Amino acid sequence: MNLENITSDLSKDEVFLKINDFLENKGFQIDQVDKERPWGGFFVIDENQISEFAEMFFMEIELSEKQLQQKLSPKFLLVAPGSRLSWQYHFRRAELWKLIQGEAGIVKSETDELGELQPMEFGETVSLMQGERHRLVGMDNWGIVAEIWMHVNPELPSDEEDIVRVEDDYARK
């Protein structure tokens, strides 16, 4: 099973089913699936499989034993063609993103002013620093992005509430 057959003509349900099958085929335990996001959704992988997840999708990144014991929230982000995540940043985490299938773009900036849309390069890790504004953008096809969180303070780890939305297409706060 591979992800090459995920195309823009598939429905959201079909894409999620293919990603679910891919992850299960690779031996990953799925902790959470969220397909209610207006831009697509995500799959969260069991924290106990962070080493396997990092080895498969972030092999060029070396995580310390201390980092591997933190909640790194390994996940797949699925961004639909033509959709955008909010223009956002985080107080308590940095993030690592890698496009593993399809097409996606990224906008980054150190200020609230939108930067220029840059296409993500397949297989290239993108490091997003704490406080750096960013937005994942769907292009002509579904974009499948592997993600790992890097907590600024392991004693106060980040969570889904650690999102400051500067701008949002869906009027979320």
In N-to-C order, the SSE pattern is HEEHHEEEEEEE
Number of helices: 3
Global outline: globular
Mean pLDDT: 91
Q: How many distinct beta strands?
A: 9
Low-confidence stretches: none
SS-based structural class?
alpha+beta
**Separation, N- and C-terminal Cα atoms:** 38 Å
Overall helicity: 10-25%
The largest β sheet comes out as:
7 strands, antiparallel
- What is the C-alpha radius of gyration, as a whole number of Å? 15 Å
In terms of DSSP E residues, the strand content is: 35-45%
GO molecular function: isomerase activity
Organism: Algoriphagus winogradskyi
Pfam families: MannoseP_isomer
Domain Mannose-6-phosphate isomerase type II C-terminal: 72-168
Labels describing this entry:
about 170 residues, alpha+beta, 7-stranded antiparallel β-sheet, two-stranded antiparallel ribbon, 3 helices, 9 strands, about 15% helix
Mind explaining what this structure looks like?
Helix content is 15%, strand content 38%. It is α+β, with helices and mostly antiparallel strands. Strands 1, 2, 3, 5, 6, 7 and 8 form a seven-stranded antiparallel β-sheet that branches. The protein has a two-stranded antiparallel sheet with strand order 4-9. β5 and β6 form a beta hairpin.
Question: Short description, anyone?
Answer:
The chain is of the alpha+beta class. The chain has helices spanning 12-25, 50-57, 65-68, and strands at residues 30-34, 40-45, 75-79, 87-89, 93-109, 118-119, 125-128, 133-151, 164-167.
